[in-house]
Design goal:
Blueprint (H helix, E strand, L loop, with lengths): L1 E6 L1 H4 L10 H16 L2 E7 L3 H13 L3 E5 L10 H13 L6 E10 L7 H17 L4 E6 L2 H8 L9 E3 L6 H9 L3 E4 L9 H9 L5 E3 L21 H12 L3 H16 L2
Parallel strand pairs: 1-2, 2-3, 3-4, 4-5, 5-6, 6-7, 7-8
């Protein structure tokens, strides 16, 4: 069994961001879940990026037994009203069992998309870290063009967090070494299959399989053979094979170890 630990099923069935799913859209997810199951991807964690998309994530998780939710505000969605939205997300987390919430995220820092407001992003990130600590939930962490700054914000909390994954890892070896020393996990996605991504492949060769989990970030970042099309949870085994080749182990070993890592981190 494989697990897709970071997916946006809500964005696979609708075109507009930050609007609530209709009943028909939630039902349309069934075909995606069945396709994934047929490919050996038996569980999916659907990740929130804003208040509306976190509500969608919970709604999807409640509808499907094999889907679980994370909730949070993506750094690019940390608007002036982020704290109001955060308080609503806090309410969702207080009922984490009923809402099938297994983590807080996608949260972190993103200095790539401009203009950005560093202080606002850092404040939102800290609030989510503290929420995760309070409710003993792991973090799904986004970082882009802000590696040093993110480590600086995260370090004081490392001893208290339940766990975390660096989503869609694209940082350097030094960053990888630091987060591994902290006991965090590294999320590997389909960009590992891109011809020009040799740096990431080199880093993955050096990361213990015991600290790797697999994620699609669907509908974004499809494997090389599907570039230009929507990514799908069913594609996990395609780039899991790339990981297996890099680690010089069988696909079955990658499946077993990464799934055990998911169970340890997200308790699903």
């Amino acid at each position: 069994m494989f697990v897709d630990t970071h997916c946006h099923l809500n964005m696979l069935v609708k075109k507009e961001f930050d609007v609530l799913l209709t009943h028909d859209q939630i039902e349309a997810i069934d075909a995606i879940v069945q396709e994934a199951y047929a490919a050996g991807v038996e569980k999916i964690i659907n990740v929130g990026t804003s208040l509306p998309e976190s509500i969608n994530s919970v709604a999807i998780a409640k509808r499907y037994p094999t889907i679980f939710a994370t909730v949070g505000i993506h750094p690019c969605d940390a608007t002036e009203s982020w704290y109001h939205d955060f308080k609503e997300i806090e309410t969702l987390v207080k009922n984490k069992e009923e809402n099938k919430i297994v983590g807080v995220g996608e949260v972190g820092l993103d200095f790539y998309h401009k203009p950005f407001f560093r202080q606002r992003q850092e404040d939102a990130f800290k609030a989510h870290i503290e929420l995760a600590i309070e409710h003993q939930l792991p973090l799904s962490i986004h970082v882009r063009d802000a590696g040093d700054e993110l480590l600086e914000v995260l370090e004081p909390y490392v001893k208290n967090i339940t766990g975390a994954v660096i989503h869609c890892f694209s940082q350097n070896q030094q960053f990888a070494t630091t987060v591994l020393e902290w006991g965090l996990y590294v999320g590997i996605d389909a960009p590992i299959t891109y011809p020009k991504n040799e740096l990431l492949r080199d880093i993955v060769r050096n990361i213990p399989l015991s600290h790797i989990i697999l994620e699609t970030d669907a509908p974004f970042l499809p494997p090389q053979e599907y570039r230009g099309k929507q990514n799908r949870p069913a594609y996990i085994p395609l780039f899991a094979q790339t990981v297996a080749d890099l680690k010089k182990v069988t696909l079955a070993v990658v499946q077993d170890v990464t799934t055990a890592n998911v169970k340890k981190l997200f308790r699903i």
